[in-house]
Amino acid sequence: MIESLFPNVDWDKMWEATLETIYMTAMSTLFTFIIGLVLGIILFLTAPKQLWANKIVNWLTGVFVNVFRSIPFIILIILLIPFTSFLIGTIRGPNAALPALIIGAAPFYARLVLIAFQEIDKGVIEAARSMGATTGTIIRKVLLPESKPALISGITVTSIALVGYTAMAGVIGAGGLGTLAFLDGFQRSRPDVVLMATILILIIVFIIQFIGDALTKKADKR
Amino acid sequence: MIELKQLTKTFDVGKTALTAVDDVNLTIADGEIFGIIGYSGAGKSTLIRILNGLEKPTSGTVDINGQKITDIKGAELRKARQKVSMIFQHFNLLWSRTVQENIEFPLEIAGVPKAKRVEKVKELVELVGLGGRENAYPSQLSGGQKQRVGIARALANDPEVLLCDEATSALDPETTDAILDLLVDINKRLGLTIVLITHEMHVIRKICHRVAVMEGGKVVELGDVLEIFQTPKQEITKRFVAQVTESEDSSETIKHLRELYPTGELVKLVFVGEQAEQPILTQLIRKFPVEVNIVQGKVSHTQRGAYGTLILQFKGTDADIRQALDFLNQENVQAEVMAND
């Protein structure tokens, strides 16, 4: 029955493309999380009146985040081609998509991290300082745990955006469901391949959303 | 002992400078409960934050038990803060941690090993009356319970000084009294010095030994709580005292009482300290042939003794009333005939 609905789908290829998409999403989410968190912490702590208040660092980080957040992803991929080929050695395949994915998503996540930190009650940070906490302790034991639900829901949103980005990266030959839908589906006029790729992408998105929501709820003790 | 010398703090607000604390000199004794009262913007929040180095003064020094808090920084200051802990108006608990974990937090900062932390938390939970609530999250607690966690947390590293930043201002009157009782209990049991800031004279009356009144960054009046209640000098102090002594001095009230008791003389007595506990009225009635009728009265208890006013209606001959008033003045009770104006 499924075979008759999707006559042109090569299931082995479809499965391989799905794994590539999952791989690209997972790796880019991981690095986006780490880099975004670091950028978010810098943005937050170097802001005026904060623990590391520093106008220059704050301004530079802010500019970096705003610039890369504003460039449309499809253009960012093209702009980053030289950088990617230098870093990865090729511009094709799932690994070649990672630099663009991470550089595109990390600044976005950094903003979400900043917002999450800004929502922490200032009094709690003051209380930690009054107990003699170092800035490192404040980051580890106040900022991160107190904003955990927002950090998790933020990475969920970012991760879902990254699934979309991987599909776009497919246009330049990154592999994954995007490439498959574009090359095997669209260019060869096989709508069933496009449809199947779409269904699989939706399933991936729903699973990410489900896991993200469950983790957010579990972390929220307010 | 805490010594504040010529403490001044100015903030840059755009082009002008705002002087939040203006040349404050204070000495607070060990084991004392010292109150600082003022309206918002009087500089008391800034002042209390200078005491644990959360704010740096523009000039002047703070010396706590021989250590100049205003001169140290970095690791040394962080270490000192463990001995000068603080509780807050909005409690400032970590919502992601349970009661137990919140109280453990300062111990983690101080690098106390886990087994010792657990032991200490157990002790503190009992001390502040939160037994059985160890595993609750702050969101599951009432305001009073949250402040108890705040107090336990502040006591975790055995501080020498406890700073209270409007600690009861977010609580209802009943809970306020319970928390104040706890603070007095802690002060007595642990011999801890308590410095508190508030805008409520009720708090000062209930637990403080001495009080400083702040206005515009300056300490405008300083003294024993009883003394301040008895003879407030500054206008602002009188207003604060009126918060708790109600409106019995207003001409409106006097007029009203006069209408209710048109005969005889209305006499206002002010008792302070020991006199409030002696049977002066009994003696008065036995010695002089005057009829005494109680019109209105109130006795408040402070940490330094009772304080009260009593309005009486005296009926008798002018000579007898005069003699009775002389007797009261001899006994050091302030007695005055309430003029009808």
From TrEMBL, chain A:
Gene3D superfamilies: MetI-like. SUPFAM superfamilies: MetI-like. CDD domains: TM_PBP2 (cd06261). It is a multi-pass membrane protein. The chain crosses the membrane at residues 22-45, 57-84, 96-117, 150-173, 193-212. Residues 18-212 form the ABC transmembrane type-1 domain. The keyword Transmembrane helix applies. Its main location: membrane. It holds the Pfam family BPD_transp_1. Keywords: Cell membrane, Membrane, Transmembrane, Transmembrane helix, Transport. It is found in: Cell membrane. Belongs to the binding-protein-dependent transport system permease family. This is Methionine ABC transporter permease.
From TrEMBL, chain B:
Residues 2-241 form the ABC transporter domain. PROSITE patterns: ABC_TRANSPORTER_1, ABC_TRANSPORTER_2. Keywords: Amino-acid transport, ATP-binding, Cell membrane, Membrane, Nucleotide-binding, Translocase, Transport. GO terms for molecular function: ATP binding. SMART domains: AAA, NIL. Pfam families: ABC_tran, NIL. SUPFAM superfamilies: ACT-like (SSF55021), P-loop containing nucleoside triphosphate hydrolases (SSF52540). Transmembrane segments: none annotated. This is Methionine ABC transporter ATP-binding protein. It comes from Planomicrobium okeanokoites (Planococcus okeanokoites).
